[in-house]
Write a structure and sequence with these properties.
about 150 residues, globular, UDP N-Acetylglucosamine Acyltransferase, domain 1, 1 helix, 19 strands, mainly beta, eight-stranded mixed beta sheet
Length: about 150
């Protein structure tokens, strides 16, 4: 336990308050984790990722470098619970993507590079790179034109 803590400290990882970070989770350099968050078995989090308070990130989630995960974001890994582990689906949040507060991400999706998900949205499908999605279920936000 102390060895793990020292390893994370050397990498500049900051874990605020009480969190449950599984030993098999891989946290990159400079990761910040808000209080009362859970980071599950085998989760991969890239360099410079910021995770807000009270987030749930279960096994099967990959968050690439520079992503921002707002407070109370919930990921799933089981489409039809309870299912055996071999039926769990992987979810990927690509580099630089940002998820607002209270977002829920249904398993098996890919959120593209630099995408933005509005607060309170429920992501049920893939989000292309650079797009803004909002709502329940989340849909592409159209930009107004003249």
């Amino acid at each position: 336990m102390i060895r793990r803590w020292l390893e994370l400290k050397r990498k500049g990882v900051r874990i605020y308050g009480k969190c449950n970070v599984y030993r098999s989770a891989k946290l990159g350099w400079g990761v910040q984790v808000g209080c009362f968050s859970e980071i599950g078995d085998g989760v991969e989090i890239g360099d410079g990722v910021r995770i807000g308070a009270m987030c749930f990130i279960p096994a099967g989630v990959v968050i690439e470098k520079g992503a921002w995960i707002g407070p109370r974001v919930t990921f799933t890994n089981d489409r039809y619970p309870p299912a055996p582990r071999e039926d769990w689906e992987q979810t990927t949040v690509e580099e630089g993507a940002r998820l607002g507060a209270g977002v829920t991400v249904v398993c098996g999706v890919r959120i593209g590079r630099d995408a933005l998900i509005g607060a309170g949205s429920v992501v049920t499908g893939n989000v292309p790179a650079g797009e803004t999605w909002v709502g329940v279920p989340a849909k592409r936000m159209e930009t107004g034109g003249n």
